[in-house]
Design goal:
Rossmann fold; 9 helices; 35% helix; globular
Length: 289
């Protein structure tokens, strides 16, 4: 049965906006966005291509993003553990016993938490542009720090925009994205159009920008990377300024039998369109078992 389109569902006592693409009889892939990221970062055509490969694709707005429940700016009423629990709650609400979890950045950290806390719910992991969210085995090397340019950008404390001024908000978010993505793969016109879409469907942009970073961790799953049993594919840009490539190598070394797909010259970003054929093919192969 084909099930497409956005709708509001109740997850862990709150309203989340979810979107599905493809045939519900196919294996499910749950796409988990990064910090402050709505489902829009997983573009519709990307989802359609996965669905064309025989996958039931689920994406959703985190709390405080898109059309999901919104809290006052600077006062998140949830924890990081709640955001991880929401991923499982989305599966529950859709009647899915399990799914392949694909998370980017913070979404990758949440996926690791779910894999440790609920291994039976995770058919496999796809970890993009992320970092170990739990301890590695003893003796692993230190993770490399973010790039000097990105540290300087954060240290400059760029003023927040007037949240009531749509153009100023869009300019701010595009500027932020420019510092994360690699110059060779930063398509400003495309990013601006995507950010406009995100701003226009977000209940409270100020909350979406600030609240995830302010939320307490909560009661996160405890464990080590080598205790993750889900088959894992790590996808990571070699020019990621936030989580340099060593973070991907640490994940691939720390999780048993993990595979690593480097994206040459790509920054901290959802895989850019030129890489879609390689990334989607790899995701379909990885989730075929």
């Amino acid at each position: 049965m084909v099930m497409d389109g956005q709708r509001i569902i109740e997850v862990n006592g709150v309203d989340l906006c979810v979107d599905t693409t493809g045939d519900a009889a196919d294996p499910a892939i749950l796409l988990i966005s990064g910090m402050g990221g709505s489902m829009d970062w997983w573009e519709e055509e990307f989802c359609q291509r996965l669905a064309a490969g025989g996958r039931f694709v689920i994406r959703y707005d985190h709390r405080d993003t898109g059309q999901s429940v919104s809290y006052p700016a600077e006062a998140p009423g949830y924890t990081g553990a709640d955001l991880a629990a929401d991923a499982v709650g989305v599966l529950d609400a859709l009647g899915r016993r399990s799914a392949h979890l694909a998370g980017i950045s913070m979404g990758g950290a949440l996926a690791q938490q779910v894999a440790l806390a609920h291994p039976g719910r995770v058919d496999s992991l796809v970890l993009m542009s992320t970092s170990p969210a739990v301890r590695s085995a003893p003796g692993r090397p230190e993770l490399p720090p973010m790039s000097e340019d990105l540290r300087a950008y954060f240290a400059a404390e760029v003023p927040l925009p007037d949240w009531a001024e749509r153009t100023a908000v869009i300019d701010y978010l595009v500027g932020y994205e420019r510092h994360l993505e690699a110059p060779d793969y930063f398509d400003e016109a495309h990013i601006r159009a995507l950010v406009e879409q995100i701003v226009d469907r977000t209940n409270d942009v100020a909350a979406s920008v600030m609240n995830h970073a302010l939320a307490d961790e909560g009661e996160l799953a405890r464990g080590r990377l080598d205790e993750i049993t889900a088959p894992t594919l790590v996808i990571h840009g070699t020019a990621d300024p936030l989580f340099p490539y060593g973070h991907a190598e640490a994940l691939a070394l720390g999780i048993p039998r993990a595979e690593l797909l480097p994206l040459e010259g790509v920054g901290h970003q959802v895989p850019p369109r030129p890489w879609w054929p390689s990334v989607i093919a790899a995701m379909l192969r990885h989730t075929s078992g």
